[in-house]
Specification:
By secondary structure, this protein is of the alpha+beta class. The protein has a single domain, classed as Translation Initiation Factor IF3 (2-Layer Sandwich), CATH 3.30.110. The protein contains two helices and four strands; from the N terminus they run βαβαββ.
């Protein structure tokens, strides 16, 4: 998977969600959005799952996470 990165760690709410959703709308098949964030965006998680996205969160410390977001269907397709 190709990574597309966005950094929302310095943005105030609700800008991070807006930036993330806009970036997801632009992702191509087989791409994964890597989000640098200062906290877990819990309100976003349910929206992602309902829209067919999957995610994986890596917590580096209290104010630094990496969030990987990708289409659930991409998990089952092999090139």
């Amino acid at each position: 998977m190709k990574l597309v990165s966005v950094d929302v760690s310095e943005l105030a709410p609700p800008e991070p969600m807006t930036v993330i959703l806009t970036a997801l709308a632009r992702l191509n098949k087989g791409e994964c959005l890597l989000v640098a964030h200062r906290r877990q965006p819990f309100p976003l998680y349910e929206k992602l799952l309902q829209a067919g996205w999957a995610y994986h969160c890596q917590t580096h410390d209290d104010e630094n996470i990496s969030l990987y977001i990708y289409r659930q269907i991409d998990l089952y397709q092999f090139d």
